[in-house]
């Protein structure tokens, strides 16, 4: 029996009656995470003179955010009779004129990863920041970063996707330069420069899409692109513009050849922020690729007939997905090799993890590419499930490992491999979570990483893509090589003076232990996780359900709201 067949028999949580949730509350749940994190950001900003109160408000905001996301997961996606997709029309302006927030299985799955890693990083932050930093803008910026990520996952239109990208990036710019040293300033310069260029390209692509299609609402875009003749759209022009957007999303995801900002930025930022950048913000790029490729552009009748010079390989199909898949294959393959080889030669733990993040995002992009190029609906679904499960494991494992770097630094004052050794004997409670996360990254059963890697290999095998299977094997061997090297150099061997005098923090170790337990629990109790990923994959490919839920109508048919004097107001929507 295959894993997908086994997981199709997944058991569900004991049902809670939806009647316990007041009618219409599902719609209010959509905006709840954004409101909570916005309130936490503003409140922590106003409490700058009272660091303890600021920390308390920040932790309360993080906990409330996690509760709101859990409520969305259950009442919108997982509960018996759950609607599966819910929208919130901001200001009661109906789509496609107004700003629409949408939560479905895909966005809920992504929000869950942010909630888990976000609260872990937040708690960790309270233990590593000196008193002066607790009075700074660290906690407000943390919440604004989470606000940008949350908004990107919930928005239902392209322009506001751009806006939330910028909110996320503005906070991350400051975090990369947070320590203020020469290397941090240099890293921030390159990070800001590349992302400003990406933002300009993003805005150019958004403007072009509006000029070609007459809308930016994703559901309306999906409907119009599926029948371009009826709306006077040139689908080839739309594909060219999406190619621009795809390059922007690849930059955010850190795919080769747009990866060069990652090593310097991840080493420069505080480890708990690097955990969030690798585990959460990088997934925004992956989410955008999946959402726009499979929900918005998939049904556009665009004939693709490309040939790669000198290879004899042709790319032929009747959907933009063929082009997307081909581009992702190239970027993902290069990412796996560049990231894996680069990680093997680094001289610090965070350097290894930074290059590892480049390689691991390639493992996420490969099944997305398979889903884009296959004609089989079953294989497309399985490949997207594989990408999502692998992304979840990457969030948990890589987030834990970056937080462990923070714990190692706090305990020893260094993270250089040459200065470490014997950490396993000196602090077993630090070593055990690190070991579990490393094994999960490699893909050892029964940890969460095993299922992610198994599903990725299964997708490649079902696609009969032997070169891809070989590539995945090479990438897995490289993962074993750099994970083993870090463990041997840092945790085994003789104690160095830095390790001999190490003093660990109990709260930091508790955060690492909780994340390690989550990795184990996801693996041991994988059926509900598969069910969630299954719902997320269904949401990604079911464009009709997305369009029906958002219910876009022609803007000319919309009734303008009254201004109170009997006159109709002009379009005041988000575009």
From TrEMBL:
Transmembrane helix keyword on record: yes
Region (Disordered): 556-575
Bilayer topology term: Multi-pass membrane protein
Segments forming domain NADH:quinone oxidoreductase/Mrp antiporter transmembrane: 156-298, 326-479
InterPro entries in the cross-refs: CPA3_Na-H_Antiporter_D, NADH_UbQ_OxRdtase, ND/Mrp_TM
UniProt name for this protein: NADH dehydrogenase (Quinone)
Keyword Membrane: yes
EC code(s) of this entry: 1.6.99.5
UniProt organism field: Halopiger xanaduensis (strain DSM 18323 / JCM 14033 / SH-6)
Broad enzyme group: oxidoreductase
């Amino acid at each position: 029996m295959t894993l997908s067949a086994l997981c199709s028999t997944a058991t569900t949580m004991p049902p809670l009656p939806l009647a316990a949730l007041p009618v219409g509350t599902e719609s209010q749940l959509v905006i709840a995470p954004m409101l909570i994190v916005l309130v936490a950001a503003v409140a922590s900003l106003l409490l700058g003179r009272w660091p303890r109160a600021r920390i308390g408000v920040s932790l309360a905001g993080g906990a409330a955010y996690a509760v709101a996301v859990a409520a969305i997961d259950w009442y919108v996606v997982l509960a018996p009779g759950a609607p599966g997709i819910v929208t919130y029309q901001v200001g009661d302006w109906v789509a496609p004129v107004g700003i629409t927030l949408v939560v479905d299985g895909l966005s809920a799955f992504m929000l869950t990863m942010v909630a888990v890693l976000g609260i872990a990083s937040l708690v960790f932050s309270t233990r590593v920041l000196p008193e002066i930093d607790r009075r700074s803008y660290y906690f407000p910026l943390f919440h604004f970063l989470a606000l940008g990520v949350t908004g990107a996952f919930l928005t239902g239109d392209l322009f506001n996707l751009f806006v939330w990208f910028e909110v996320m990036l503005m906070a991350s710019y400051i975090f990369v330069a947070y320590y203020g040293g020469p290397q941090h300033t240099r890293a921030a310069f390159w990070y800001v420069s590349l992302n400003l260029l990406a933002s300009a390209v993003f805005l150019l692509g958004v403007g072009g899409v509006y000029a070609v299609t007459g809308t930016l609402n994703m559901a309306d875009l999906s409907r119009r692109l599926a029948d371009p003749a009826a709306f006077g759209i040139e689908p080839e022009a739309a594909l060219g513009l999406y190619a621009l957007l795809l390059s922007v999303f690849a930059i955010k995801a850190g795919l080769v050849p747009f990866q060069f900002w990652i090593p310097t930025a991840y080493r420069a930022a505080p480890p708990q922020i690097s955990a969030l950048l690798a585990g959460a913000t990088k997934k925004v790029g992956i989410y955008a690729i999946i959402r726009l490729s499979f929900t918005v552009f998939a049904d556009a009748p665009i004939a693709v007939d490309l040939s790669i010079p000198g290879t004899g390989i042709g790319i032929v199909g009747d959907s933009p997905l063929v082009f997307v898949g081909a581009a992702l294959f190239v970027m993902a393959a290069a990412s796996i090799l560049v990231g894996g080889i680069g990680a093997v030669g680094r001289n610090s733990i965070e350097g290894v993890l930074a290059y590892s993040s480049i390689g691991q995002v390639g493992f996420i992009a490969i099944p997305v590419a398979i889903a884009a190029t296959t004609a089989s609906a079953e294989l497309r679904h399985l490949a997207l499930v594989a990408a999502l499960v692998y992304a979840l494991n990457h969030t948990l494992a890589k987030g834990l490992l970056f937080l462990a770097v923070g714990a190692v630094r706090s305990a020893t004052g260094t993270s250089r491999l040459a200065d470490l050794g014997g950490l396993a004997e000196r602090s077993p409670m630090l070593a055990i979570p690190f070991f579990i996360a490393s094994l999960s990254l490699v893909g050892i059963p029964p940890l969460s990483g095993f299922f992610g890697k198994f599903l990725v290999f299964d997708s490649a095998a079902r696609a009969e893509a032997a070169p891809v299977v070989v590539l995945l094997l090479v990438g897995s061997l490289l993962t074993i090589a750099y994970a083993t090297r870090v463990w041997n150099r840092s945790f085994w061997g003789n104690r160095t003076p830095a390790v001999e005098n190490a003093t660990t923090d109990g709260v930091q170790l508790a955060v690492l232990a909780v994340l390690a337990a989550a990795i184990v629990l996801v693996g041991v109790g994988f059926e509900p996780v598969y069910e969630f990923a299954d719902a997320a994959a269904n949401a990604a490919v079911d464009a009709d359900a997305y369009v029906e839920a958002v219910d876009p109508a022609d803007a000319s048919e919309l009734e303008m709201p009254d201004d109170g004097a009997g006159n109709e107001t002009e379009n005041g929507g988000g575009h």
